[in-house]
Amino acid sequence: LRRQQLLPLMVLLIGGSIILLALGFSHVLNVNPLGLSTHALQFGSRETGTVGWLLPADTPISTSYTSNHSLTGFIGATLNVFPYEVVPGTILQLGLYVDGQLAATQSYTLSGTYHTPATIVQTIATGVANFSNSMLGFTVSELSLKTTLPPGTNVTVTAWASSPIWAQVDPTPLTQSYEMQASTTYSPVATIIEDSGSVAPYTLSVGLESNAA
Amino acid sequence: LVILTSLQPHYMQYNPDRVISSLYQTNGAWFQTGIISAANGYGQFTIQVYTISGSPYWRDDEVFICSQSYLQQGATWSIREEGFYNWQGQNRIIGDVYFLVSSPTTNSSYTLYPPGPYWSWLRSNLCWCGTDGGSTTFTNAFTNAYGVSTVSSDANLNSIGPPVVVSTNENSNMVYLDFSNSGTRSMQQIFELCNCGGGGGGNCRAGQCQI
Description:
The complex is a heterodimer of chains A (213) and B (211). The radius of gyration of chain A is 24 Å and the shape is globular. In chain A, the strands form 2 sheets. In chain A, strands 1, 2, 4, 7, 8, 9, 11 and 14 form an 8-stranded antiparallel β-sheet that branches. Chain A has a 6-stranded antiparallel β-sheet with strand order 6-5-10-3-12-13, with no helix packed on it. With 213 residues, chain A is mainly β. Chain A has one helix at 3-29; strands at residues 41-44, 51-55, 61-66, 75-82, 90-98, 101-110, 120-125, 128-131, 134-142, 154-161, 165-168, 177-179, 198-199, 206-210. Chain B starts with a strand and ends with a strand. Chains A and B meet through helix 1, strand 4 and strand 9 of A and helix 1, strand 3, strand 4, strand 5 and strand 8 of B. Strand 9 of chain A pairs parallel with strand 8 (107-113) of chain B, so a sheet runs across the interface.
C-alpha cells in the first residue's frame, strides 16, 4: 500500500479505537455514583466487646446462625482474634457452610508479628481475659451467590487453629458454639450437622454479612 | 506500605479512581477502604468492593468503638493497605488492611484480612467523603470540620491524576492539591476540606465552594 492509501486507513483505525474506548469509559461512568455505603445486612455476632477466650489447639469449633432475611450477592463471615502471644506459623482454618453444605474455606498462616499487639487488661478466668482494643479479623466468604437464599438459611462457621489463639467471644450470645472431634490436621468436611459435638464453654463472636436489599 | 492519615477526624475513605480501577483492579472491581463515623457515636472500619457495574460484591464492616473520643481534636485516623508488593510488576496484592484510630483518650486498631488475597493495591486519593453517594453532610461534630490530611509512602510512587471529576464521583468535598516529590519515597499529596457552611459540606473545587 502506498502512503496515500495508508493514511485514511490509519485515521479510520485510530478513530474507531477512540470511539470504542469512549464507549467503554462511558459504560463505567454511567454507573450511579457510589461512595462507601453504610447499608449492609449484618447478622450473627456484632459485638464490640474485648473479651477473649483461649481457643484450644487442634479443636474444630462450629458456630451457627439463622438469617432472618434473604441473602444475596455474597455471604461473608469474620472471626476476630486478639493479637496476643500468637505462635508464629499458627494455621487458622476457617470453613463456611450454608444449610450444612461447605460453601467456602480460607486458610491463614499467622505471622505472630503485628502493628498493635493486644495486651491483657484483666484476667477473668483461666483462659478468659479482657483485652485492649486491638483485633485481627479473619474472613471466609462465599462470593457471587448464584441464587438468593431465603430467610431461614442456616450459616455455620467452623474455626480450627494449630496452636491456641485468643478469639473474641460473644458476651450476650444468641447461639452456642460447639467443639468437634479434635484433630492435629484439619480440613473442613463437605457437610456438617448443625450443633453437633459438645457445647463449648463460650460462644465465638462470628460476624456475618451479606448484601442489603 | 502506604500510610494514610487524617489529622482531624471525618469520614475518611481511600477511593481509587473508578476508571483506573476498571482497568487495573482484579475483575475491574472498585476496592475501597474507609473509616466511617456514625451519628450515634459508633465508629466503623470498612472494606467495600463493588463490581464494574456498581453492584456490591463483598464488604466487611466492623464497629470499633462506641465513644466519640475518636472525634476529639487531635485524634488520628489511619488506613494501611498492606500486602505482597512488587513495585516493578503487577503483583501488588493486598493481604490485609490495618485500621487505626487513636485519640488522647483511646486507641483502637483492627487488621482485616479480605477474601483472597487477590485485590491489587492502586494508587489513589484519600478523601473525606460523605457516605451513600454523598448524601451525608458534615454536621454536628463536624461543624468545624475542615483541615488538612496527607498521604505518604515509604515506596517510590509516581503521581496519578485526581478522579475524573475533581470533587469525585462520591461527591467528596475534598480539594485535591498537587503531588509533591513524585517518584520518591517522600511523595506527599495534600487534601483539604472546604468549609462551605451548613456544617462544612458542599462541593469544592480549586479551594472554592461551588454553588
